[in-house]
Amino acid sequence: MDNILFAFGLTLFAGLSTGIGSALAFFTKKTNTRFLAISLGFSAGVMIYVSMVEIFVKAKDSLVAQLGLKAGSWATVAAFFGGMLLMAVIDKVIPSGENPHEMYKVEDIEESKVKSEEKLLRTGVFTALAVGIHNFPEGLATFISALHDPSIAIPIAVAIAIHNIPEGIAVSVPIYYATGDRKKAFMYSFMSGLAEPIGALVGFLILMPFINDLMFGIIFGSIAGIMVYISLDELLPSAQEYGEHHLSIYGLIAGMVIMAISLLLFI
Fold first, then answer.
1. Measured distance CA(197)–CA(137) in Å, rounded
2. Percent helix / strand / coil, the chain, rounded to 5
3. Backbone CA torsion sign across 153, 219, 224, 190
4. Listed residue (218, 189, 195) closest to 137, CA to CA
5. 235 Cβ partners below 8 Å, 6+ apart?
6. 210: which DSSP letter?
7. pLDDT 10s digits, 84-106
């Protein structure tokens, strides 16, 4: 029971960091693009390294033990790319205009004022919905990782929390300038983040009766694919949209180095 509460708390922390982005939009006058570029790159480095070096390997070990070397290896690869496919399908069904990969800066608030209030509100609401849909599988990934190995889950949760900050800005900026209501803008941002712990809870309740070594291997392989997809499709492009290409790569390498060291400390 303690493990479940810990896993849920970690997922809640990751999801609700959208509220940090919302608060930044209201209380700062200029976006620190250098910090966000490094942070998003760092998150990508953490996710890619832990997915390929740790999560994928544990998934393969579990599936090979259940299915044998050849079948287990093929199943691991299928689960990995299946996780990527899931995220690609989610991206496909979200209208491009409301896709949360569109990065906002605090300075965009002033530019947003020239748009119609109706269009702004629609943009904000649909962005909140899009962020919520993306957060659902991310929440499940964090939750399952925390149940199995907290040393892996903690850096994943921190990485997801960092990448949720600009998403919080993307939700709150248009809603605030459509309504003039900071509380409403913050609530939409907050609610989009809630999809992460909800995804964790719903996924766990559905999967709980079926979880065994075979199912665990498939889920963990899929989590590795989800994490790598998020890194390549969201985090790095988002970091570079802030105009700090080299800083995002430095952040990526730093994330990998720190993740490597943290895993070595647990040997």
1. 10
2. 85, 0, 15
3. negative
4. 195
5. 40, 41, 43, 44, 47, 163
6. G
7. 998 888 877 765 554 544 455 55
